[in-house]
Amino acid sequence: MKEAMPVLTAGTGLHETLALLTSQLRPDANHKEDMVFLKDVFSERSLGYLMKIHEKLRQYERQSPTPVLHSASSLAEDVAEELQTGPMSTEEKELLHLLMSPHLKAVLSVHDTVAQKNFDPVLPPLPDDFEEELDEESVKIVRLVKNKEPLGATIRRDETTGAVIVARIMRGGAADRSGLVHVGDELREVNGVSVIHKRPDEISQLLSQSQGSITLKIIPAIKEEDRLRESKVYVRALFDYTPLEDKATPCQEAGLPFKRGDILQVVTQDDPTWWQAKRVGDSTLRAGLIPSKQFQERRLAYRMKMGTLPNPKSPKKPASEGCDKAGLRRSFRLSRKDRQGSSGECSELGETDFLTYEEVTRYQQRPNERPRLVVLIGSLGARINELKQRVIAENPHRYAVAVPHTTRPKKPHEKDGVEYHFVTKQHFDADALNNKFIEHGEYKENQYGTSIEAIRSVQAKNKMCIVDVQPEALKRLRTAEFKPYVIFVKPRIPESRLRRSAATSPGGGEHGRLTDEDIQEMRQSAIQIDQQYGHMVDRVLIKEDSASACAELQGILERLERDSFWVPLSWVRT
Where is this region: Disordered (predicted)? Predict the structure, then answer.
């Protein structure tokens, strides 16, 4: 008996019809290959998906709601006006408040715009005075809305043809957001004014003076460059940059000013000389020009060659030299001989390194990781050892100090491995020769040093290790193993103390007994450390007094365990 064909109704969907057709295909001796082919085609999963999508679209077309009216805004105004003509109940007052709120007005305005289908861009009429040699399809009229912001594009004059060419599109600017202006486009007119015979600075002034909408006549480039893609490259600036003082920048107004320590997102490196970047945390979407790493290094190398920039490879005077008289010297300092020779220390810059940018990424300590190392450096008068000991004493279960080594004799109340690791001079010298100390020096004919193993021993107990070192030791500690967080502590020196005479200044306070010369040395020490090592500092702590400085330091340590921070990319790269 022959099988009856299934009945198809008006409500049967396309994908259901397809399934029914597939089920009816039977092998036939005369058309076997055709049947197999049709069954394979109808059985394709992608075809079934397409049929379902088509059915949903048709269903949406039949059920799609349409606006009841096109004038909701004016109706709301009429209702508000009617409500205000007489006394109002509580509900009427609430309704009036809602109708007068700017947010609801904006929603109703958008509703009316969509209901009227009035959301297509309105283009200006094509001008009648096209050059004869150009056909209409080769000219593009672009209208942009830029308000008070820059256009976000730079121009140049083609040396061969003399044409005004779009040289660069700034990421996030008005030109970039429009998607209608591209690098290589030829600019002919701005707001109906021909720019063919104008100088680039005159054109830039014309563009900057245009407020609100601006109309451009453009001849599109034959080959438009790809749109800029958002980059994931982040760098920490290691120098200050002011575009208005940079004569080399192609457009000072398009430059991005930044300070040392700012985090920059580099959105494109297409130009080997001028990168485009945005400062992390800025609300503006527009990128700005910054000198590329290679270009900035070449400039610094040239300045060093010409003698206008100090050689980064030359030895630097220790910041702690000459501070005995003020009574502010730490218990020991680095030996200059050891720092430059057998200790393995080196200048914080390599042979070819200049302070430009350091690639960084966000890092947050995970529960199974060892705590980050906290490094304190301080200018004269900061008394960082006292600050460190106070913080550790208040919470000895979370924080600890790296126990130093010494060759001095042990006192009766001291225990080996608690106050110090007491070792012989031969043992100490051998460890120093093998670069086991991050810093070491001599004090009253005895050797003192802080070893790398002492830091590891604290971290192995899952405690946060706090060390205070001379700034010269930072290079040795800035490794992926320790991931140090560097805090620069400096005392607050009131300006009145800088101006006040030692003979007339009264005593009292942390700095009450210091002379004017001591105060100046403290101030100069802070400036010198900042200039030489500030690019490695994560936080500056201004010490008002011991109690407030201790509380601030504790807050930093707590955030260090739970928050994320920018660190060099090399520290977390696997």
Answer: 307-348
**566 shares its domain with 419:** yes
When mean pLDDT is compared across 38-52, 326-340, 371-385, the lowest value belongs to 326-340
Is the same domain home to 540 and 394? Answer: yes
Rounded distance between C-alpha atoms, residue 532 and residue 524, angstroms: 12
With CA atoms as reference, report the closest residue to 515 among 533, 503, 529. Answer: 503
> Does residue 464 sit within a domain?
yes
Mention every residue, 6+ apart, whose C-beta is less than 8 A from residue 348: 472, 474, 475, 532, 533, 536
- Specify whether 365 is located in the same domain as 483: yes
68, part of any domain: no
399-401 sheet: strands from edge to edge? 399-401, 464-468, 374-378, 485-491, 539-543
Give me the domain span that covers residue 373: 326-499+514-571
Both 436 and 542 in one domain: the answer is yes
Please write the tens of the pLDDT for every residue from 475-503. 899 999 999 999 999 888 766 555 553 43
Q: Read off the pLDDT of residues 27-55 as tens digits, 9 standing for 90 and up.
A: 665 666 777 777 777 777 778 788 888 88
Tokens for 418, please give them: 């608690």
Name the packing angle between helices 90-100 and 102-115 (round to 10°).
60
* Residue 318: both structure tokens together: 């220790």
Q: How many domains does the chain have?
A: 4
Predicted local confidence at residue 45, as pLDDT: 78
pTM of the model: 0.56
Q: Indicate the burial class of 434 (C-beta count within 10 angstroms; 0-12, 13-18, 19 or more).
A: exposed
Angle between helices 72-83 and 102-115 (to 10 degrees): 140
pLDDT band at 270 (very low <50, low <70, confident <90, very high): confident
Give the least confident one: 99-103, 183-187, 257-261, 510-514. Answer: 510-514
pLDDT recorded at residue 503: 39
State how far the Cα of 264 lies from the Cα of 279, in Å rounded to an integer. 4
Q: Are residues 416 and 556 in the same domain?
A: yes
Q: Are 354 and 300 in contact (CB under 8 A)?
A: yes
CATH classification at residue 378: 3.40.50.300
- Please check whether residue 114 lies inside any domain of the structure: no
CA 532/CA 312 separation, integer angstroms: 10
pLDDT digits (tens, 9 = 90+) for 159-218: 777 788 888 888 777 777 777 788 888 888 888 888 888 887 788 777 777 776 788 888
Does 572 or 7 have the greater pLDDT score? 572
Q: What DSSP element (H or E) covers 297?
A: helix 293-305
Q: Give the end of a domain, one of 189, 219, 249.
A: 219
Residue 28 resides in a domain: yes
- E-only strand ranges, 269-347: 274-279, 288-291
The dihedral over CA atoms of 545, 549, 550, 553, expressed in degrees to the nearest 10, equals: -170
Contact between residue 415 and residue 432 where contact means Cβ atoms under 8 Å apart: no
In angstroms, the CA 159 to CA 562 distance is 57
Q: Which helix (H) or strand (E) holds 441?
A: strand 437-443
